[in-house]
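Hi R.,

Here's the input for the 2'-deoxycytidine-5'-monophosphate complex you asked about:
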Amino acid sequence: MKKIIVAIDGFSSCGKSTMAKKLAGETGYIYVDTGAMYRAVSLYCIQNGWMTETDMNEVEIKKHIHSIRIDFRTNAEGISETYLNNKNVESEIRTLEVANGASRVSTLGFVRRELVRQQQLMGEKKGIVMDGRDIGTVVFPTAELKIFLTASPEIRAERRYLEMKEKDENVIFEEVLANVLERDDRDQNRAESPLRKADDAFVIDNSVLTEKQQQDILKKLFVEKTTSN
Ligand code: DC
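And here is the predicted structure with 2'-deoxycytidine-5'-monophosphate in place:
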């Protein structure tokens, strides 16, 4: 079976990472969550005071972008966690504040170029499942298997809302929905690498699919791609 690159793109809170992680686990491929990389940059900017709710200091971010090192390490339970300059930031990057910041720093061309460079290095040997917004279009335009995952904004907001409620976060559904719509708008309309489906990507709309149905479709496509010439 040949080793391939699996690129999974789509809107926020679509379940891309669940899908990607599962496939990586089943196939022994490396999993890379590129959203976590933009979140780590966002956290770094917030911690250094270069990003507030209203401002973003592009000059300082540009000056320091090459001193941001992001990598993924597997913990004792076999779960991949995000490290920023050698510090585990996996839980810190999952807040709404950091997500909003990530959506803003990801509009900066110099941030995207640096992260894309790091992502391309990670995929040099193939055998990788990478999820994000521009993986099939910019990072790996020649990836053997490209998926574009989508679901309605209301369904995505509901999933996110339930997830946050479970963690005891004080959230209001309308706010989560507004946040999903705002991020969709920014992801699709930014000048640099906007979210779009690659021409050769398979679309999976999981609004009405169970996780198992979705995974079966993905696995079938994976087997086809790894066994074909
Ligand atoms: O998938 P996520 O919610 O963790 O992503 C966080 C933000 O990063 C999101 O607003 C979009 C952005 N992003 C991006 O622009 N390109 C990627 N390849 C991955 C994420």
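One thing worth noting: The beta strands are 5-10, 30-33, 70-74, 80-84, 87-88, 128-132, 145-150, 202-205.

Cheers,
M.
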